[in-house]
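Good day; I would like, with your permission, to put a structural problem before you. A protein sequence and the structure tokens that stand for its backbone fold form the material at issue. Thank you for your consideration; the sequence and its tokens are set out here:
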Amino acid sequence: MGIEDDHKLARDLATEAGDKLLALRKEVGFDDPTALRKAGDRSSHVFLVESLRRLRPEDLILSEEATREERFDARRQSADRVWIVDPLDGTREFAEEGRADWAVHVALWQRGELVAGAVALPAQGRTLFTGNPPTLPTAPEGPVRIAVSRTRPPEFVQRLAQEIGGVLVPIGSAGAKICAVLTGEVEAYVHAGGQYEWDSAAPVAVAQAAGAHASRVDGSVLAYNQVDPSLPDILVSLPELAPTLLAGIRDRRQ
């Protein structure tokens, strides 16, 4: 088993889980969004966990939909390899007809680093993964476009956008936001409203493989497979914009 196999496995599992979620959308429909969200979360979790346990039986798994006991499994701290998955990132968007800004995340942490990952964007018909990361665009002329939460954009990010002449672009899931940086739809993603490791592990793995900047909003390293999986803030951007954004964030948060 080599790292190339892990890249491909992340890609294949994320893509297949996404295909199953598209089929579930058609089967269940949008009349009961709560039921659709619950079915999507659960079915994708079961598929990914069962697949990883079968294909990588020695590895541990951290999933958003795991029980609290599984999330805080002490064995993770001494494990060499841990898969960090978000079976359905952007459940709100998944249950809204016509929305495509939801994702499936599959990432592999190994000995302190994210070494493989994939983000499937099923309703967009694509999967970004570390085995063949996208080529980063260059920063265009004009305002910096900053992806933010649809429902809770941080106040300091609004002030940051005003300071640097940027514009805010609401997008659904964290995976969709980070992928938007990698594909040129926006230049940055800033979030400080609370997240967990599974919200960003896979898209950060892909972003780092592509050469994008990824850090906490204070510039410190994003650490995964921690005892507490909370990871409350993040900045992902084109690398040439990171110094300006970090300085602006620091000024706006003081």
About this structure: The longest helix spans residues 3-28. The chain has a mean pLDDT of 93. DSSP finds eight helices and ten strands in the chain. The chain has two domains: 3-129, 145-253.
